[in-house]
Amino acid sequence: MFKRLLKHQFKSTYIYFLSLYLLLILGGLLLGSSIAINNDTFIFIATILFTAIVFGTISALFVFFYKFCISSMFGKRGYLTFSIPVSPHQLVLSKILAIFIYSIGFVISAFICFYLVEVFISPKIANSIFGSITTLHEINSHYHILLNILLPISNLISFIYFILLSIFAFTFANSFSTKKRRGILAFLFLIIISSLVSIMPILFNLNFYLVSYIDGSLKIFHSNSMAPIYNYSELQFNYLSLSVFILHIIFSIIFYVWTIHIMKHSLELE
Questions:
Q1: Which residues contact 252 (CB under 8 A, 6 or more apart)?
Q2: Which is nearest to 84 in space by CA: 141, 170, 5, 173?
Q3: pLDDT digits (tens, 9 = 90+) for 82-97
């Protein structure tokens, strides 16, 4: 049932997202071509349109996130959603996976968009982008393999943490608040909880970092003892906040379990 649920979600939404991706790429092409023509009026108009497209695309993604994750579960469509034989686990996991895949598509389309702009501004610089990526990969290969593995995992966990936090905030607000106040209350929960989690390492003096130098050595530093490493160049070390990494794992589990519990026992639909 999980595969069918995921397939249905992609089938009902892929056109919307592909249209946003295409619009973003066309915006980059429009701005780049206006720069190539070198007409001030055309560049001014294209810049305004490009800015509107970029911010409009980002706003549309957030609006769709609300409709895709929140309205389909807690709105009027929730009755239909919960009438089919799917568990809360399958529902939440399908949302996370779908948003993750669509986010990758957004990153790729954004890269193509800005690459097209750069091609028209300076083809040499545009071609050097891939060379810079290769150089960055070579530099990172000198760092400890553990850090290179944990960094992308940390980014992925932070992304999942934000999604779970958002779903939890709306689920929690939906469990006891009135219909008119749910959105405001959920937004307040989102801001308050994310702020508290972010300052916890500072409040409890647990700011630990995993640091790797260019020679491949690996050390753990507390924030109070990290000053000496800044004597090196930025390319000579890389680091990961262990505190944030661990906190995001712990609270992702908490938000997930709590959300499932609310959905099973105290969920109220519109």
A1: 157, 160, 161, 164
A2: 5
A3: 555 667 788 788 888 8
Spatial contact of 95 and 69, defined as CB atoms under 8 Å apart: yes
CB 28 within 8 A of CB 50: yes
Distances (CA, A) of 151 to 22, 104, 127: 30, 17, 27
Backbone angles phi, psi at 142, to 5 degrees: -80, -20
Please give the helix or strand (H or E) that residue 222 lies within, else none.
Answer: strand 218-222
Distance of CA 240 to the CA centre of its chain: 18
Tokens of 133: 């990526």
**Edge-to-edge strand list for the sheet holding 237-241:** 218-222, 208-213, 237-241
In this prediction, residue 160 carries a pLDDT of 92
pLDDT value for 245: 93
DSSP 141: T
Considering only CA atoms, give the Rg of the chain: 22
Tens digit of each residue's pLDDT (9 = 90 or more) over 122-178: 766 666 666 666 777 777 778 888 988 999 999 999 999 998 898 888 877 776 655
Average pLDDT over residues 16-42: 83
Please report, in angstroms and rounded to a whole number, the separation of the first and last CA atoms in the chain.
25
Contact 77, 175 (CB under 8 A): no
Measured between alpha carbons, how far is 93 from 86 in angstroms, rounded to an integer?
Answer: 11
Query: Taking 60 as the threshold, does the pLDDT of residue 80 lie above it?
Result: no
Is the overall model pTM greater than 0.90, yes or no?
no
